[in-house]
Structure formats: C-alpha cells, structure tokens
C-alpha cells in the first residue's frame, strides 16, 4: 500500500517484517538480485498491498517468498526511513506458528543466525535499528 504521508513528496510504502525465532536464532534473508539493495540481508517480509492488514501482508509475503506459514503476532516497533526515491515505514512483528521449512522462492538465501551474529551481515538502515534494539535487549525473544 502506498501513501504520501512522509515529509517529502516521495511515495511512502508500508512494509511488514518478521522476527521468526527458532532455537535462539532468527531467520534472515538476502535481497534478490535486480531489487533495491540487492545483496543486503533483511528480516523477511514485504510491502503491504491495498486492502491488506499489516499482519495479513506479512503472512502472505512469508508464504510467497519462503514457502512457510507463520502467524504474525505482536507488533514490536515501527521505523520510518527515507531513501532517495521513496519513504518506508517498517513495521516489525514477532511471528510464530512456523509450518514448513524455509526455502527461498525468489533466488535469495535464507539463514538462521544468532542475534550476536547479525553484525556480520550487511543490513539496510531500518533493519540496523531493529538489530540495535535486539542488541540492547529492548526486544525480547518470543517463542
């Protein structure tokens, strides 16, 4: 879903991202080739479409991109970030109910990593804010 509520006239996208935990590790995915920020890592998710709630968006995106089913739980935080051509608000959710084994459907990689390993990967600025909150125990692991 696109709106124009950021401070500039750029399109403003609502994006949902999942913190999916398993055995003390988080699921991260790489951005596919040919996409904005290709090669960066991120918490999986995607853009909200017209008429979707953020939770239903996240559940749809995870199924499409990774072939797994999740249940989007508590919204942990929302982060606004302005890129050169667009603004985004990243809404981060704890997710559970993992059904299936993650298998990247769009040429990206998927990995389970410990929170202390996250600095070893290159993330976009909004995801770095999430990592900072994880590092400072401002986001608890939810199982």
Question: What report would you give on this structure?
Answer:
There is one protein chain. The chain starts with a strand and ends in an 8-residue tail after the last helix. With 143 residues, it is of the alpha+beta class. It is globular and about 45 Å long. Strands 1, 2, 3, 4, 5, 6, 7 and 8 form an eight-stranded mixed β-sheet that branches. It has one domain (2-135): Nucleoside Triphosphate Pyrophosphohydrolase (Alpha-Beta Complex). 17% of the residues lie in helices and 38% in strands. Strand 2 and strand 3 form a beta hairpin. The mean pLDDT is 86. The longest helix is centred in the middle third of the chain and has 13 residues, at 54-66.
How many domains make up the 3D coordinates?
1
How many E strands?
Answer: 8
CATH hierarchy, class: Alpha Beta
Spell the H/E element sequence: EEEEEHEEEH
**Amount of helix:** 10-25%
Structural class: alpha+beta
Q: CATH superfamily assignment?
A: Nucleoside Triphosphate Pyrophosphohydrolase
Cα gyration radius (Å): 14 Å
* CATH topology group: Nucleoside Triphosphate Pyrophosphohydrolase
Question: What overall form do the CA principal axes indicate?
Answer: globular
Summed over residues and divided by their number, the pLDDT gives a mean of: 86
Largest sheet: 8 strands, mixed
**Terminal residue distance:** 29 Å
